[in-house]
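DM from R.C. (forwarded with permission)

"hey, sorry to bug you on a friday — could you get me a structure for this? deadline for the figure draft is monday and I only need the backbone to look sensible"
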Amino acid sequence: MTVCFPDTQDNTPKIPVKLSRVGVTGVKKLLQLDRPNKRPIILLPTFDAFVDLPNNQKGVHMSRSPEAISEVVEEVATNSFFEVETICAEIVNKMMRKHEYAKRAEVTMTSDFMFPGESPVTKLKTQEMTSLKANAIGYREDGKIKIRKMIGAEVTGMTVCPCAQESVKEADKNKLLEFLDEKTTQKVLDTVTFASHNQRGIGTLLIEVPENHMIKGEDIIRIVEESMSSPVCELLKRPDENAVVMSAHENPVFVEDCVRNMMVGILKKFPELPDDTVITARQVNEESIHRHNAFAEKKTTMSELKEELNV
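My reply, with the result:
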């Protein structure tokens, strides 16, 4: 005899208030993503999945969201589509069909991602770690499910403060003028690299992926790295350390500069993206001489960005 359990979630709530997001967080899975002519990528991602809840329903059918995640992960194992943002979009599509009462569904994925690196002078091969991100949002429109998906990365680098460096340069200039003439002092100032305080920079870039377009996570990582004073490297010998420090101090940037540099990098790398493509760039600099951190962010579309930069 089969027992039929009641769906308590379908009851009417005592308080008829709709909820924006209800779901599950911290769902971990193992993914192997095949790539043409390359070794597969192994990821251990964490998924968060949500749907909205109408005011006439007590609760969501909570198990359906992790069930959708598991089903798509199994499909990846057999069918081998390899874009992480497509995986999120497939999960959203399944969730919208399983949660027929939902008007909106959202899935985010975050995973450690290892990419090859190289020390700047000794050319030692390294394995660099970053955080790969993907997101998909689905909604119902005219009886159809529409899905928008994004890919991004969170990358650690090094930034050097331009303001402090100018202060150090001015102080050293006054000291040099005590025993050198102005011409010789200027030659010294033009030759040497001046100290400043530096920060560990954490840059995040998310780009919407339109239909029939592909954006590689490696390209996003490179844009974020190049937006800061210098990339960082897991393994550095003394000549490498010197090169990183010197290079960073020759390229001082504010937290605001990092975000603006990302914008330029996007236009150079992805000029073909449609005008309505959504972009989010964020930079956090963990200060070394303050107890607080510095923050900057920009959310825009390709058309707005091109208009701002007269492209």
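R.C.: lifesaver. The longest strand covers residues 125-141.
me: no worries. The helical segments are 64-79, 84-98, 162-176, 182-191, 217-227, 238-249, 255-269, 302-308.
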